[in-house]
């Protein structure tokens, strides 16, 4: 079996998984954040105690052969040389959601390089590992000068367990602003700031770095023979799960707080940083065209704080379509897929009166956002959906109706990241595709033509400049005309 650590921004999970990626048991804890000084930061010391004690507890119930970690792409740790010195960090790990000091933000911008060097637009708060390193170096130069390694989250935990430091491409390719995925080289800021000394040698995500450190095994009662793997970026490991199942030429859309899309087929010239598009890396170092939009936050704004648990009935969707009730982007503080739309979200048509109608409108809106993501990424015929939006069948059904030329499938397993991470342990010995049950959305037969016309009208409204929407509304004809 494989022990999988999944470090999210809000919660941290430790799972026991079979070699085929099936999750047997999962334990979780909030990811603690402390106030400054010198900045708001994660409590790595407390989290380390939980990780090691929980791993020991799981090891008494399961026989593990390997440990692997995944993590969100906006976290890294500047460490010393000794993983046994407290939490190993020479400066606290920055919480990426806090605002940047204005001088750090302004001085960093001209250092960040081209879009290909960054792999993304420059995002909110303290997102991006290069920007965090710059903040550390500018504010705490003495401590920064004593650092030995800069490690992405999965590699930090691998180092804590094994004592071996490594860099890994899928994590560095997750909008770190440190790694140019297209050219497979460090971004210019790394050389300009002299940060090469902090970057350890590269290792593959599935590579064994070593066994658990003997002193750690003795202190917590951990299995000393446990192989510690390099690990990788959470969304890239979710993508790897489908690769391990034998899928090729596909786009995967994961849903939750973010709608995240990945395709290995997206040409670089299609990437538009002004529409939330990114250049990521898979675990093999190959390019992945990506797209990000905060669909979960938009869903909550439209549906309200307590949407009904029941599935949306078809007749509720039919009313939204028939009466041309629209939610138009964007309800969040950024533009998402529609430049100039930040905080300009609004509703057009009669009001969605009931809680169920508001939920239906939110799911339909997110299906339309997803269709925009897929259009931006390219033409892969196979689309695989996973994540929280699939709890209501309407999301997948609406998307399939909006994209009749594509093959839409869904995966109801909510542990895709952990499953992908676990599958790394068998990467070099796997002889057959990993099992992967995929479902097919039911056909909204009677609604399909009207839903496609509704989708075309929504797209015209959404892509119009916010100031042009009233004019558009006044001149468009009847939906059924």
Describe this structure in words.
The protein is α/β, with parallel strands linked by helices. The chain has two domains: 229 residues, ATPase, nucleotide binding domain (Nucleotidyltransferase, domain 5), CATH 3.30.420.40; 201 residues, ATPase, nucleotide binding domain (Nucleotidyltransferase, domain 5). Helices cover 34% and strands 19% of the residues. It contains 17 helices and 21 strands. The strands form six sheets. Strands 1, 2, 3, 6, 11, 12 and 13 form a seven-stranded mixed β-sheet that branches. Strand 4 and strand 5 form a beta hairpin. Helix 10 crosses helix 15 and helix 11 packs antiparallel against helix 13. The relative contact order is 0.12.
Summary of the model, kept short:
The protein is an alpha/beta fold. It has 17 helices and 21 strands.
Helix coverage percent: 25-40%
Euclidean distance between termini CA atoms: 60 Å
CATH topology of the largest domain: Nucleotidyltransferase, domain 5
Main beta sheet strand tally, sense and closure: 7 strands, mixed
The shape, in one word, is globular
For the record, what is the CATH homologous superfamily label of the largest domain?
ATPase, nucleotide binding domain
Rg, nearest Å: 23 Å
How many strands appear in the DSSP assignment?
A: 21
């Amino acid at each position: 079996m494989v022990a999988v650590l999944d470090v999210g921004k809000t919660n941290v999970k430790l799972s026991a998984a079979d070699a085929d990626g099936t999750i047997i048991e999962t334990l979780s804890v909030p990811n603690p954040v402390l106030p400054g000084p010198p900045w708001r930061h994660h409590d790595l010391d407390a989290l380390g105690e939980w990780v090691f004690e929980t791993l020991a507890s799981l090891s008494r119930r399961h026989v593990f052969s390997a440990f692997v970690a995944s993590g969100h792409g906006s976290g890294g740790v500047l460490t010393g040389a000794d993983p046994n010195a407290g939490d190993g960090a020479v400066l606290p790990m920055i919480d990426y959601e806090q605002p940047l000091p204005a001088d750090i933000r302004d001085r960093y911008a001209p250092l960040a390089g081209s879009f290909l060097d960054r792999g993304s637009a420059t995002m909110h708060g303290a997102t991006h590992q290069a920007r965090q390193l710059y903040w550390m170096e500018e504010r705490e130069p003495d401590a920064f000068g004593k650092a030995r390694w800069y490690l992405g989250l999965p590699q930090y935990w691998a180092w804590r367990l094994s004592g071996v430091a490594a860099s890994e491409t899928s994590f560095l390719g997750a909008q770190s602003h440190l790694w140019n995925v297209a050219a497979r080289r460090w971004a210019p800021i790394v050389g300009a700031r002299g940060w090469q000394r902090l970057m350890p040698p590269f290792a593959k995500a599935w590579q064994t770095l070593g066994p658990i450190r003997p002193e750690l095994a003795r202190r917590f009662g951990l299995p000393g023979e446990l192989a510690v793997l390099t690990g990788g970026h959470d969304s890239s490991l979710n993508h790897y799960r489908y690769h391990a199942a034998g899928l090729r030429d596909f786009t995967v859309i994961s849903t939750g707080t973010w709608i995240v899309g990945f395709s290995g087929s997206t040409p670089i010239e299609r990437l538009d940083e002004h529409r939330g598009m990114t250049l990521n890396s898979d675990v093999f170092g190959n390019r992945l065209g990506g797209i990000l939009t905060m669909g979960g936050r938009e869903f909550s704004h439209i549906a309200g704080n307590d949407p009904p648990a029941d599935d949306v009935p078809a007749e509720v969707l039919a009313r939204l379509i028939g009466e041309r009730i629209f939610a138009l982007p964007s309800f969040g503080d950024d533009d998402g897929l529609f430049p100039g739309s930040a905080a300009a979200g609004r509703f057009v048509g009669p009001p969605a009166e009931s809680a169920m109608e508001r939920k239906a409108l939110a799911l339909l809106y997110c299906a339309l956002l997803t269709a925009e993501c897929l259009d931006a990424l390219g033409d892969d015929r196979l689309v695989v959906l996973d994540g929280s939006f699939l709890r209501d069948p309407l999301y997948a059904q609406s998307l399939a109706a909006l994209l009749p030329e594509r093959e839409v499938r869904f995966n109801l397993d909510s542990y895709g990241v952990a499953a992908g991470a676990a599958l790394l342990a068998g990467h070099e010995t796997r002889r057959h595709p990993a099992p992967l049950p995929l479902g097919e959305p039911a056909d909204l037969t009677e609604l399909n033509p009207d839903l496609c016309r509704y989708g075309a009208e929504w797209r015209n409204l959404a892509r119009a400049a916010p100031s042009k929407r009233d004019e558009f509304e006044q001149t468009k004809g009847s939906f059924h005309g």
